[in-house]
Write the structure tokens for this entry.
Amino acid sequence: MILPGTGRGTVPRRRNGGGGLSLRKPSVYRARKLRRAMSLPEAMLWQQLRGKKLGFKVLRQHPIGPYVVDFYVSAARLVIEVDGEAHDRADRPAKDERRDGYLDDRGYSIMRVPAVAVLNNLEGVLEGIAVRVTDPLHHAPHGSPPRPGEER
């Protein structure tokens, strides 16, 4: 398309945000919104995890399928969730269980960290994350062990 009076050909710009199809997925929009509205414990933890400060790359508010996880270490397929008191209320435990099942079925390891632990013992939380990433032999390679009566 040639714009009148310019003699230059250009591609018309989209006014709806543009980007590839992957950038227009609802989970990507939700992740971007969550990155701007992190809780205090999430923000504190992110300040210590960002920029490979622990020796490995950590992504924040990362979309995986229909879900957005708080933090994700791709090298270890480790999902880190910071759980505040809201995770114990109403239907939240059932939602967390469905989400954990989805992630577990796809080979992700999940580490749940209480928000109060981040606030009161940030160094301990960071040490626990570092151990989980650098020494995964001490943890189940794929999810939790079977419950009584279940066999895998």
In short: The first strand starts at residue 59 and ends at 64. The mean pLDDT is 77. Residues 73 and 138 are 17 Å apart (CA to CA). The radius of gyration is 20 Å.
